[in-house]
Amino acid sequence: NIRFLLFVFTGKCDCPFYARIELLADKLSLNLPSFRVTKIVKQPQDWKEFTKWITEKHGWFVEESPVVWRELVDQGGKGILIGGANEFQELVAAYYGEQISIRTDEMLNVMKNNIKYKIQEDQEQQMKIINTPSPSNVVVIGAAGLGTGDFLASILNGKVFGDEMIELYLSDEVKNKNKLFELREVLEEAALPKLSRVHISDDVDECLTHAKQVVILDVIPRKGPSFSDIRIQDEWEPRSEWLIRRFLYFDKLGQKMKEKCPKSVRVLLAGNIEADTVLMEMTTPICFDVTTLHRRTKGKIPPEQIVGLVKPLELKVKAAVARHLKVHTYDVTDVVIWGNLGSSVFLDLSRSCVSCRRHFDAGVVGGSHIRLPALSVAENPQWLHKELLNELKKENSTRKSEYIGLLYENAMAECLKECWNSNQSQPNQTTSLVMISRAPSQL
């Protein structure tokens, strides 16, 4: 009750015996609906390697061209070896009563056509490989922590790097390797369209070669109480010891990046998800990290390609301004953050604008083409200047990490969009970043 027979014909393109049984196989496949053929043609120099593959795959020791076997489509399994040209012709003569009579010159013509076809096929395949862009390597260091799932999904959905395929490298400490395997499994199950492959590694060295984008999360957290006990001040690791640990880590990482990364690599230091909470003990000193990394990679990676994330705080300020002006958060632009995350920060709303004022109680209403200075339409500009940041800190101190994570992940994705100029919906807008100044002081 076999529905059809599938025969696999393999041979060298310059083999006359392969040419003979190829003609016979073509004749049978044209006249017998149940007789199907798959052909594998190899260059002479590739034949030996191919026979090794046959031995490893099927367990058949073969050397001469051609080789014919039948696939067990109806049963599964490794297939049945028929043999060479003579064995196949004997099988066809006995089973189908068919024989082939071909002159030597005809057989040689078929062989020449096979050679020509194989050369052309190899050239086309080579051109396809050359014209197909290689996947972009994106490295995420500290990937086992909070705030990676939605962020990685944004990257692998084409929202950051457009149509580029992404080869993703996830790196973390050895103790977190199981978390990385779980994350990889979820990413692969999600069928994300731009994902080429996910690599897991606890060795940063092997991740950095050919990296296009490196994202560094909360790699050296400060030792201290859990989130529920963060107000117990005397349990925190001394800040000086914490900064020494961070310096040693980023100094070593910077040396590796200088040795292995291309000059075009871009680096985003994202820190931890509490990057703007009221307790400075929990806040990652991103300015310190960026400075350390820049000094070690100086001469290889331009300073504007190593930046720190400020976007979470920027988005929260926009939301607070939007509530005050009774507009949508998306309609507030050009909020600038000055200072040092982990120490003192200052808001600069002098450039901030607002558009699309829709609220029924708003003083000024207009479309998206109208952009007004935010301070000029605010009911209480002094509150925006003096109290807004303190109010935000009070709100943030009561929020749980899992809820802050959504904002944090979106902020990372939006920051990368702006860095790679893929955020075309909001051109010519100001954003805040931690980066080294081009001035001689390099602050």
From TrEMBL:
Coiled-coil intervals: none
Record keyword Metal-binding present: no
GO terms of molecular function: malate dehydrogenase activity; oxidoreductase activity, acting on the CH-OH group of donors, NAD or NADP as acceptor
Gene3D superfamilies in UniProt: Lactate dehydrogenase/glycoside hydrolase, family 4, C-terminal, NAD(P)-binding Rossmann-like Domain
Disordered: annotated segments: 423-443
Record GO biological process: malate metabolic process
UniProt entry keywords in alphabetical sequence: Oxidoreductase
Family that this chain belongs to: Belongs to the LDH/MDH superfamily. MDH type 2 family.
The protein's name: Malate dehydrogenase 1B
